[in-house]
Specification:
CATH superfamily of the largest domain: MFS general substrate transporter like domains
Shape: globular
Strand order of the largest sheet: 1-2
Structural class: mainly alpha
CATH architecture of the largest domain: Up-down Bundle
Radius of gyration: 23 Å
Number of helices: 23
Strand content: under 5%
Oligomer: single chain
Distance between the termini: 27 Å
């Protein structure tokens, strides 16, 4: 074992890449679908004569379904086998996509999106479980570099693809495009994935499920309602959040009693798992929340089309694709505690530019900053995941992946809601224009609202150009202030990153290694 540990890790072979192809297809569908739908919200408002709050549930419903089903993935993978469950997830996602394209009302669309989410919620944790078992801990770094591609291409390619499909065809095709991909992935999975060897010895934790899944869904429902309500004191926000928190806290105390809990919090006894998870959780809150507002700045302040806004985000993906393979290889050889801080410094450097944005900030500067942030992202997310996965033994991979997926989902929801509330509260401080009303609703409008509408090609008669210009500057300042909050949150990420391992540690092979049985790690 010592000689093996000292030798350079094996290269990823053809068998691993064959399995990786299945997982990457599933990941592309799951991740791309979130960002593709986000650009279609204005179209849904027009098509279904709905408000923004109503169409936003096409995203929220999908997220809640993901959060509800993820806790079941670990147990179900052990009970039924990863191959069968992964194929079931592909079927649910593909059927949900087909039904979404047939929706004739916003209520139907939200319902079908929930079905999509039930499948999509299992694709990523199951895919990570399959790949970790196939590659082994010693090759996790390079493996994560491969699987990280769809995780980065989703946010970049989604707006571009969604904008193009809506302009060239119709909104139906943002869902129909999943059907052929899903069919190919299903056939591919049948032939490529290894035969299941389920171990149905563990009993199902029904009490844990009744506490965690509804509690998590209620908490995220309250968080997701925050941008719409504008205040945490709204009953629609604090009541479900409070009930959800109580149920989750109850679950935490309960989960140490059963031998096989739904979510194995005993995994946190592993220091590397705990440190890596906290670092990733803080990073997602900081970067993902503010990162979703980058395209909004291009749309609302700079007046770009959806397609152009997506293209302007491309440098970030390009930067990440450059460093991700390098970071993946280094993660197999160099302790992540020595590389991740430098990558985070690049993210902070690029992010700082957006704290200074205005109505005419140079696109060269902005795209260059996005590129630098992309370089940092490629060297941050995958190595942190690698640090956790490396000490996972074979049996605990499924439960470990489930644990980290849930924390990522919570972190992303908190970050998105926080940044949205900050931006909304800033915009609400705009001056109301006396006598001016929205032609559709008859409600009074502010300088910021008029400026945003103007940038999107909607003009309200009788508004002086100077007032529109002043409103546009106000909107730009609101974005800059919101990005400043995000920047300071990014700086906070350096605290948990400082505790990442700086010394080489042996990977756990199938439970071998000191403490393997008791201190598994995981991550997705």
């Amino acid at each position: 074992m010592t000689d093996q540990a000292a030798a350079p890790p094996e290269k990823l072979d053809a068998a691993v890449f064959k399995i990786a192809g299945v997982v990457v297809l599933g990941a592309i569908m799951s991740i791309l679908d979130i960002t593709v739908v986000s650009v279609a919200l204005p179209t849904f408002q027009t098509e279904f004569n709905a408000t923004y709050a109503q169409v936003a549930w096409t995203l929220t419903g999908y997220t809640l379904a993901l959060a509800t089903v993820i806790p079941l993935s670990g147990w179900a993978a052990d009970r039924f086998g990863t191959k069968r469950l992964y194929m079931l997830a592909l079927v649910l996602f593909t059927i949900g996509s087909t039904l979404c394209a047939t929706a004739t009302s916003i209520e139907q669309l939200v319902g079908y999106r929930v079905l999509q989410g039930l499948g999509g919620g299992m694709l990523m944790p199951l895919g990570m479980t399959i790949m970790t078992r196939a590659a082994g801990p010693a090759r996790i770094g390079r493996l994560m570099a491969v699987l990280g591609i769809p995780m980065l291409l989703g946010p970049i390619g989604g707006p571009i693809l969604g904008g193009w499909l809506i302009e060239a065809a119709s909104w139906h095709w943002i869902f129909l495009i999943n059907v052929p991909i899903g069919a190919v992935a299903l056939v591919y999975a049948y032939f490529a994935l290894p035969k299941d060897n389920p171990t149905p010895s563990e009993s199902f934790d029904f009490i844990g499920m009744l506490l965690l899944s509804p509690g998590l869904a209620l908490f995220l429902f309250g968080v997701s309602s925050l941008p719409q309500e504008g205040t945490i004191s709204a009953p629609k926000v604090w009541i479900p959040m409070l009930i959800g928190v109580v149920m989750m806290i109850t679950f935490v105390f309960y989960s140490f009693k059963p031998q096989h809990p739904l979510l194995d919090l005993r995994l946190f006894r592993n220091r590397r798992l705990t440190v890596s998870t906290v670092a990733l959780f803080v990073f997602i809150i900081a970067f993902m929340g503010a990162g979703l507002l980058f395209p909004s700045y291009f749309l609302q302040v700079r007046g770009e089309s959806t397609l152009h806004a997506g293209l302007l985000m491309a440098p970030q993906g390009i930067g990440a694709m450059i460093t991700m393979p390098i970071a993946g290889t280094l993660a197999d050889r160099v302790p992540v505690g020595r590389t991740v801080p430098f990558a985070m410094a690049l993210i902070a450097l690029g992010f700082f530019t957006f704290t200074q944005v205005g109505v005419d900030t140079s696109y060269v500067l902005l795209c260059g900053s996005l590129f630098v942030m992309g370089l940092g992202m490629g060297g941050t997310m995958m190595p942190i995941m690698t640090s956790a996965l490396r000490t996972l033994n074979h049996h605990d991979v499924a439960r470990g992946s489930t644990l980290v997926n849930i924390l990522q989902q919570i972190g992303g929801s908190i970050g998105t809601a926080t940044m949205s509330v900050i931006l909304t509260s800033q915009l609400n401080g705009s001056t109301v224009i006396p006598g001016a009303t929205n032609p559709k609703t008859g409600e009074a409008v502010t300088e910021a609202q008029v400026a945003i509408a103007h940038q999107q090609g909607i003009n309200i008669p009788g508004i002086p150009a100077a007032m529109i210009e002043r409103g546009l500057q106000f909107v730009a300042d609101c974005f800059a202030n919101t990005f400043t909050v995000g920047f300071f949150l990014v700086l906070c990420t350096f605290i948990p990153i400082a505790f990442l391992p700086r010394k080489k540690e042996a990977a756990v092979e199938g439970g071998a290694g000191e403490g393997a049985a008791e201190t598994p790690v995981m991550m997705h």
